[in-house]
Amino acid sequence: MAMPSPSVPVRRARKITKASRKPSSRAWPPQPSRVAAILAELDRLYPSAECALVRNDPFQLLCATILSAQCTDERVNMVTPGLFARFPTPAAMAKAAPAVLEEIIRSTGFFRNKAKNLIGAARALVEKWNGEVPRSMPALLELPGVARKTANVVLGTAFGIAEGVVVDTHVIRLSQRLGLTRATAAEPIEHDLMAIVPRPRWILFSHQIIWHGRRVCRARKPDCDGCALVPHCPGAFREV
Questions:
Q1: Strand partners of residue 53
Q2: Which tens digits make up the pLDDT trace of 20-68?
Q3: CB-based burial of residue 43 (10 Å sphere; 0-12 exposed, 13-18 middle, 19+ buried)?
Q4: If you write DSSP's letter for every residue of 120-185 in order, what string do you get?
Q5: How many whole angstroms separate alpha carbon 189 and alpha carbon 172?
Q6: Cβ pair 151, 141 in contact under 8 A
Q7: 48-52 long-range contacts, Cβ below 8 Å, gap at least 24?
Q8: Cα 23 vs. chain centroid, distance in angstroms?
Q9: Annotated catalytic residue 149
Q10: Residues of 91-112 as b/e, b for ≥16 C-beta within 10 angstroms?
Q11: Residue of 114, 149, 192, 223 with catalytic role
Q12: What CA–CA distance (Å, rounded) separates 169 from 15?
């Protein structure tokens, strides 16, 4: 009598949660052909992607980006019309009473620290830069409330200067899912992306990734079924 063959255990794809997410374990750097395919698809999907923060000049963009920390662009865009109507220039904001500014921006979160940074940045612009937003990374990083993300947003969006890649929560999440980084922190992720994405693409690439993160590859429930990047994404269908 033939003995029954032992059953072979079914191997299931490992699910990844937001808490356990980490970069793909694939070899780095990724294949240039895969990177090129991702860039080409992003161009097809979002040829005119741009910064979602509403602004009229570099100073307004700087303020809006400072406010966007730990806050959605939608919320910032609800707050900034009243803010800029009251304090339209660095000179005006430099003289703002902290309590008044805090009340205007309260809904963006961390409003006391943000108000302090807005006033400090405005004063620095008046005292050191004749009321103009500087066009260099070192100068921007000296302003209160400005780190590399904010500086890259201002340089790229206001002046068309590709000094680096904007790395926000969307870029962190998608670069990890797409296997475009081996890092988990913002600055090392930026360095990885700068190494594999051509410099002329840095500004547009950031906007495209952010748009895709908001529309398709969302944090809580990525729409892998409806994602055109799935053929190039090692993280597809793995996250819950």
A1: none
A2: 556 656 678 999 999 999 999 999 999 999 999 999 999 999 999 999 9
A3: middle
A4: HHHHHHHHHHTT---SSHHHHHTSTT--HHHHHHIIIIIH---SS----HHHHHHHHHTT--S-SS
A5: 7
A6: yes
A7: 49/204, 49/207, 49/208, 49/210, 49/211, 50/157, 50/207, 51/153, 51/157, 51/207, 52/77, 52/210
A8: 17
A9: yes
A10: eebbebeeeebbebbeebeebe
A11: 149
A12: 20
Question: What residue has token string 């790395």?
Answer: 167
Q: How big is the CA angle at 74 (ends 206 and 210), to the nearest 5 degrees?
A: 15
Q: How far is CA 176 from CA 97, 104, 147, 185, 219, in A?
A: 42, 36, 21, 11, 12
């980490």: which residue's tokens? Answer: 22
Facing residues of 16 across strands? 239
Q: For the beta carbon of residue 63, count every other beta carbon within 10 angstroms.
A: 28
Residues 165-193 have pLDDT tens digits of: 999 999 999 999 999 999 999 999 999 99
Rounded to the nearest angstrom, the gap between the alpha carbon of residue 44 and the centroid of all alpha carbons in its chain is 20
Both tokens assigned to 195: 């190494």
Catalytic residue among 168, 192, 223, 225: 168
CA atoms within a 13 Å half-sphere pointing along the CA-CB vector of 207: 19
Cα separation, 130 vs 62, in Å, equals: 16
Closest CA to 195 of 28, 43, 9: 28
Which residue has 């475009």 as its token pair?
180
At 139, the amino acid letter reads A
114 is catalytic: no
DSSP-assigned beta bridge partners for residue 239: 16
